[in-house]
């Protein structure tokens, strides 16, 4: 019996070792790459949406508000399915990676626009008035006075959004993208050890997120020193 237990333990360790590199490789190649690209593009979209939502012109604020409400009001998984499985019915077929980038970019853009909008609105109105009193127009006031203050406020929630996106990329497995979670599913189908392999991929996600949380803390402290906060 002891020999059987030792053989079973040895087999489990062998599975862990053999699965580790394919999962890590998929994590580095797809999970992190997808996260970085989607977050950067989403941040650009978020900035435009935030400016549109605080605009005095309804032709900008209303469509932006409708878009944000639509994205925030529907599940990310459904959005990915519409883009990857639904659009081909309209003659638009996308590569899984591109479909994932589009889906996560739109989602990040909507959610992060609220973070940026709230950060901009958190700057006291007196700052706008002070900028206007020295001859700055609204665009100059925003660029030189408001945004530098808003950025400091937005860094912690945006960093959390970035880390959250790392975990959300696991949903890309549902549209056949071979990122880290789908590799774990493939290994489960091969080895029939779901508990072991799903725990292993969870640990890898935990390691990625822990490193990013550490970087986030360093970034916040560095930015606080630069801004004198």
Automatic annotation (TrEMBL):
The record, for SUPFAM superfamilies, names: MetI-like
Domain named ABC transmembrane type-1 is located at 28-216
Recorded GO molecular functions are: L-cystine transmembrane transporter activity
Per UniProt, the keywords (alphabetical) are: Amino-acid transport, Cell membrane, Membrane, Transmembrane, Transmembrane helix, Transport
Source taxon at top rank: Bacteria
Question: Where in or outside the cell?
Answer: Cell membrane
Q: How does it sit in the membrane?
A: Multi-pass membrane protein
Q: Work out whether the entry's keyword set contains Cell membrane.
A: yes
TM segment ranges: 30-52, 64-87, 195-215
CDD domains, alphabetically? TM_PBP2
Keyword Iron belongs to the record = no
Cellular component GO terms held in the UniProt record:
ATP-binding cassette (ABC) transporter complex
Q: Which residues form a coiled coil?
A: none
The entry assigns this protein to a family as follows: Belongs to the binding-protein-dependent transport system permease family.
What is the designated name of this protein?
Amino acid ABC transporter permease
């Amino acid at each position: 019996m002891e020999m059987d237990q030792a053989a079973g333990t040895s087999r489990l360790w062998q599975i862990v070792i053999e699965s580790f590199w394919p999962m890590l490789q998929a994590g580095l190649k797809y999970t992190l790459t997808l996260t970085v690209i989607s977050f950067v593009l989403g941040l650009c979209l978020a900035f435009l949406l935030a400016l549109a939502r605080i605009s005095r012109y309804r032709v900008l604020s209303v469509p932006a508000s409708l878009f944000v409400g639509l994205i925030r009001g529907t599940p990310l998984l459904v959005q990915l399915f519409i883009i990857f499985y639904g659009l081909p019915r309209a003659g638009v077929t996308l590569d899984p990676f591109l479909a994932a980038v589009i889906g996560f970019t739109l989602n990040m853009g909507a959610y992060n626009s609220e973070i940026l909008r709230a950060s901009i609105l958190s700057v006291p109105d007196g700052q706008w008035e002070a900028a206007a009193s020295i001859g700055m127009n609204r665009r100059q006031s925003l660029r030189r006075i408001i945004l530098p203050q808003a950025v400091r406020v937005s860094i912690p929630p945006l960093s959390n959004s970035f880390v959250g996106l790392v975990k959300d990329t696991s949903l890309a497995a549902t549209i056949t993208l071979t990122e880290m979670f789908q590799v774990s599913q493939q290994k489960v189908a091969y080895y029939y050890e779901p508990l072991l392999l799903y725990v292993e991929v969870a640990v890898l996600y935990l390691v990625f997120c822990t490193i990013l949380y550490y970087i986030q803390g360093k970034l916040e402290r560095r930015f606080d020193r630069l801004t004198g906060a």
